[in-house]
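Issue 218. Parser rejects a valid record. Input:
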Amino acid sequence: MRVVIFLVTLFVGALLPVQAVLNTKLGKQTGGPLVSSLLSFLVGLIGLFILNLLINRTVLFNIRPLSVSPWYVWVGGLLGAIFVSGIIWVNQQQGVALTFALVVTGQIFISLVIDHFGLLGSVVHPINVQKIVGALLIIAGLFLIKK
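Output the parser choked on:
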């Protein structure tokens, strides 16, 4: 099962650069990153709505859990919009490889902090020497990609 999860994660991660290129192209055709992000999220919203109707119909219309959720769980959608808009803009400036090398570097460092302190209700996974070495190797890779 771990191999399946690993492969699914790898596949989903591989979708991000493809999405960035497509959204960047859309942004050039529609007037910029904000319009492109809006259209991208609209298509995603429609797709997810249809998928939920097919798979999760009862959950989709049960809004009770919304009232007991902490306010900050709603920030994820806004962060996604900022991420997509930002990627569309920076991808035009520096290319896909450097963009995602920087994205992965940022993700690793904030992930280590979140894990170490158990932020936002996540499970604590303390930072250790191996994780620090891994993060430093990612920085080394970033410099090699930038050259």
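Fixed in the parser; the record now loads. The mean pLDDT is 91.
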